[in-house]
Prior knowledge:
CATH superfamily of chain B: Thiamin diphosphate (ThDP)-binding fold, Pyr/PP domains
Strand content of chain A: 15-25%
Strand content of chain B: 5-15%
Oligomer: heterodimer
Number of strands of chain B: 7
Strand order of the largest sheet of chain B: 1-2-3-7-6
CATH architecture of the largest domain in chain A: 3-Layer(aba) Sandwich
CATH topology of chain B: Rossmann fold
CATH class of chain B: Alpha Beta
Largest sheet of chain B: 5 strands, parallel
Largest interface: A-B, 30 and 37 residues
Helix content of chain B: 40-55%
Order of helices and strands of chain B: HHEHHHEHEEEHHEHEH
Strand order of the largest sheet of chain A: 2-1-3-4-6-5-10
Largest sheet of chain A: 7 strands, mixed
CATH superfamily of the largest domain in chain A: Thiamin diphosphate (ThDP)-binding fold, Pyr/PP domains
Number of helices of chain A: 14
Number of strands of chain A: 12
Structural class of chain A: alpha/beta
Amino acid sequence: xxxxxxxxxxxxxxxxxxxxxxxxxxxxxxxxxxVALTADLGKSTKIGMFGEAFPDRFFNVGIAEQNMFxxxxxxxxxxxxxxxxxxxxxxxxxxxxxxHTDICYQNVNAKIIxxxxxxxxxxxxxxxxxxxxxxxxxxxxxxxxxxxxDGMETVNAVRAAYETPGxxxxxxxxxxxxxxxxxxxxxFELGKAxxxxxxxxxxxxxxxxxxxxxxxxxxxxxxxxxxxVRVLNMHTIKPIDREAIEKAVxxxxxxxxxxxxxxxxxxxxxxxxVVVELGKGCAFKKLGLQDEFAPIGHHEDIxxxxxxxxxxxxxxxxxxxxxxxxxxxxxxxxx
Amino acid sequence: xxxxxxxxxxxxxxxxxxxxLCLDTTYWAGSGHIGGGMSVMDMLTVLYHKYLNIKVDEPLxxxxxxxxxxxxxxxxxxxxxxxxxxxxxxxxxxTFNHTNSKMGMHLDANKVVGVDASTGSLGHGLAIALGMALxxxxxxxxxxxxxxxxDGECDEGSIWEAAMSAxxxxxxxxxxxxxxxxxxxxxxxxxxxxxxxxxxxxxxxxFIVKEVDGQNIKELCEAIDFALENKTESPVMIMANTIxxxxxxxxxxxxxxHYGSMDEEMYNKAKVSLxxxxxxxxxxxxxxxA
Lengths: 335, 290
């Protein structure tokens, strides 16, 4: 797609959602069939930027998420390409039946860009934390699920969603993400993990805001412990990059997943499914919410409390490095 | 255009054929939502044989009128209508609800030709229909979107979310119906969850409500004509007062026939009853038609 190459200079000035808003406006400029819907969260999700640019193609349906999803389904069936934005917890739970039936079952070309994902709206408490949305979204047939690492990746994900027919669920954070990519030109490909750092001792597979934390942890571990830790940015949760996971098992035999989400049903589960099906020995640990609700607080503080920040990841890596498992090169006896 | 006697009689004949086909489908399926199928059949007959601008040989024609069966369990009525129109093979009705059939009790738009939206989970249809209606406005198309809801379905909050939006967005190209048969699965609507004052509620939400006898083809046509000629900024809701199981005497107004099965004896009794019903309907058309 033609358009701006977003740069790091802007990324310090814009929140992740503002990047989304800009990217959507750019798509809307080129494609008159793109419409946008929100449920009284135009400003918070930044889909309102599209509304300011294209008021005739913007629908704020009020605080009525179920209706928003139904309307989007009807619009998509009539040839439009609706983008919908609300907070991730509402997009995945409040209107889950409409997401299931009107969007996924009917396989319509609607794009859900859900903001305030994970614990990024930490102070708002558990009613506004989205800790199960990837588990819900991942289990729905036809739905592609993406958890971008930062603003640049959000732009790439939004563009990919427009260019790829079918329903998408993209979860992005509230506020500013730590910069992972200086620009959008790093070879984003749907369903393909990005190798952020090479390594042979252990692989950290992360998504969203945990990618930056994983990279920080890996760098620290190399300097202090002499460990070569591979870091994969698994931005696409579904379809998952099986090849990258299988390679991580074979090359490093130790995997840690990190996500701002419950460990039940999200990234960790998706990776675990591939590992188990591969049938090869691998030390494995899932970082994230361990069947619990998160405390109230600033996002960074919550990540620290949950052990999904760089310090928590470092601890987990050291623990997993001590795991005892068969170290010979004979894979055949482990099948 | 006012309904002529000839047209009325032709629609009565078609409605009778479709009621019989719905009965057959229920019998072939082993069971089905026949009560609500019968109550909605006159609306379907009028829409598919007088109003809907659709092309059987081009089912996805961009400018076609849209129809959303929000009370998706009335698939047992819509499927015979779509087969009779020629959208789907007749033999598919004989496999209704059978394993691997294209036709299940809630029709799948990706499997059954002529279905504009897959419904079944209640309270979804009006929002989908509204999305289609607004899409027509955005894309400069003239098609109309019709939506039939069940009355029990209006217990769902999502219906009222969509109602609020339809009025807010002045979606006058959306023409809605409630099949007011006064029954849901567990009992009479007013016992399970009171809907009255039902017309007042729709009016308060910004609709112009036309209340008609939903088993009277002439009244249904007059109401649709009224909606098509609507020059206000408010959408029209046709409150069709109907009879659950209309035409089958032992089912009429009995909520237990929301879903049921028949043995051969009941099936034959139902056929006799439907014939008697048709004769009385025909006589009314002869008498009141012009």
